[in-house]
Amino acid sequence: MTESDSGETDVRRAVVLDYLAHGLSDDSRPQYEKSPAGYALETDNFELYQVAFDEDERLTIGSDVVIEPASERDVVTEARRVEYEDLSSGAQSELEYVVADLVEDEEERFVDFYNDAQPITLRLHQLNLLPGIGKKLRNGILDERKRKPFESFEELSERVSGLHDPDEILVERILEELRDDDLKYQTFVGRREQEQNQ
Q1: How far apart are CA 50 and CA 5, in angstroms?
Q2: How far apart are CA 138 and CA 33, in angstroms?
Q3: Which of 7, 40, 65, 170 is deepest in the core (most CB within 10 A)?
Q4: Full-model pTM
Q5: Which residues form a coiled coil (predicted)?
């Protein structure tokens, strides 16, 4: 059954990281031909996009927009994937705040990472990819989640001795994956692509 058969479309949303009312600085076309542009972070797979916006719309940093499919877009006229180094300096500096807000707003999804994380190899666990999580903390998380799944970041901190700011640890890992595309293991960034390639 395809997406169209079920009547559901796979809408991909993004948060605007930078809005450039006069277009991209490296766009050599005359000003009257440029449309407003900017950068956005897709919220499900943390993929970065360079986007062009409808000139009749005025957006702010943090606005929620539809990236894909093209038929569902309202203010975005074009979107293409980019790497971290392609972002404007404004988008790069905004990224940390947007990721932190996403982790906070979708707490259940990210707490479930601690509940569902699995071994990658015999010697490496997904939890060990998180900054500051060594063998002792990993084992503490695994022991506690066997007793009962975690329901909040606060509960994680209370039940796992030594685990402070579990939300900030995730933000740090997501940012690391966004900034360094040569990492061997990607846990959050580009998950959809990885699943399609398996």
Answers
A1: 31
A2: 54
A3: 40
A4: 0.85
A5: none
